[in-house]
Amino acid sequence: MDDKEINALLDRILAPWVRALTLTPVKVDEEGATLRLPFSGGLRHAGGVICGQVFMAAADTAMIVAISAALGGFKPMSTVSQNINFMRAVRKGDVLITARVLRMGRNLVFGEVELFDETGHMAVHATTTYALLD
């Protein structure tokens, strides 16, 4: 999937508030997907750090792109579970989100997502399970 296909996919399937995060593809292939979350002060809560909800949505989105790339295109799917650990506060700077498929079954897909702050430190780690609906 090239950048144009990925952006079209995100425009088609994401809720408007998730599209407003302006996630952009950095690298996508059959091994996984890396997206960039551009920093915006509006992503921070009153404590001055980027909200966990932002990171959960970004992780979910990156995993959908990674699964789509592994499948050779988007297929209907649903998040079954997302277990997320917030390891470091992020106050500023772009965040890189790297998602990879760990196991692709007939009906379930297991994945892992890592989010890195502007200094390259892992800030968030997530494991995911998706159901393929088609």
UniProtKB/TrEMBL annotation:
Homology family: Belongs to the thioesterase PaaI family.
Keyword vocabulary terms for this entry: Hydrolase
UniProt xrefs under Pfam families: 4HBT
Alphabetical list of Gene3D superfamilies matching this protein: Hotdog Thioesterase
Protein name: Thioesterase domain-containing protein
Source organism: Paraburkholderia metrosideri
Classification via PANTHER family: ACYL-COENZYME A THIOESTERASE 13 (PTHR21660:SF1), THIOESTERASE SUPERFAMILY MEMBER-RELATED (PTHR21660)
Taxonomic lineage of the native organism: Bacteria, Pseudomonadati, Pseudomonadota, Betaproteobacteria, Burkholderiales
Record-annotated Thioesterase domain positions: 48-121
